[in-house]
Amino acid sequence: MKASDLPNIISILRIGFVVPVILCVLEGFYGWALVLFLIAGASDGLDGFLARRFGWTSRLGAILDPIGDKLLMVAVFLVLVSKGYLPWWLVSVVILRDVIIITGAVSYHTLIEQFDMQPLFISKLNTVLQILLVLAVLYGLTAIAPVMPAFVNELLIYAVFITTLASGIAYVVGWGRRARKAVNRREST
User: CA dist 172 to 14, 94, 98, 169, Å?
Assistant: First the structure.
């Protein structure tokens, strides 16, 4: 193992946190779920920092990192909606956006040309808001937590909804423009 493998190892460990977080929520161990989710969320920032800071980027890391993020977020969103702590319409929009992004990326890569997926600012903001929403919900469910005003979760729910729509639209528009340019380049040669 080399130091440059550390971001990939952290991403793999984050994927390993999915099942324990889900089990903690299902069993009502919300404090533990909160702690594990915090660790998993911090690991996302840490692997990205290490990769950028030291140039420890790799093709595998570019695949593992978003997979780890999506597995954790989608699984936690699904279990929170199944327990009635998040609205189904929000989780549906979040999952639909992810399906559109993945389908668009695979389609573009297959039909147009190879590319490296670069997250947009609005997508990064959406991820941060999704994490904050899950943290707020889990925090509110812990027995030792002071009561958080209800408007905090409502505000986060709508912020996640708006940024989810905005980032989905931004990706579709961006791929459309990129595809049009690629087709025009092909036709002019």
Answer: 28, 15, 12, 5
Smallest CA-to-CA distance from 69 within 92, 91, 47, 86 is with 47
| 98 within 8 A of 119, measured Cβ to Cβ | no
CATH topology of domain 3-188: Four Helix Bundle (Hemerythrin (Met), subunit A) (1.20.120)
Apex CA 37: angle with CA 100 and CA 127, to 5°?
35
Sign of torsion over alpha carbons 97, 20, 59, 126: positive
Query: Residues for the chain: how many in total?
Result: 189
C-alpha span between 72 and 67 (Å, rounded) = 8
Q: Model pTM? A: 0.87
CB 174 within 8 A of CB 112: no
Contact predicate 102/66, CB 8 Å: no
To the nearest 10°, report the CA torsion of 55, 118, 77, 151: 100
Q: Is the pLDDT of residue 146 over 80?
A: no
What confidence tens digit (pLDDT) does each residue in 109-132 have?
Answer: 888 877 767 788 999 899 899 999
Residue 145's pLDDT is 64
Q: Domain-by-domain residue ranges, the chain?
A: 3-188
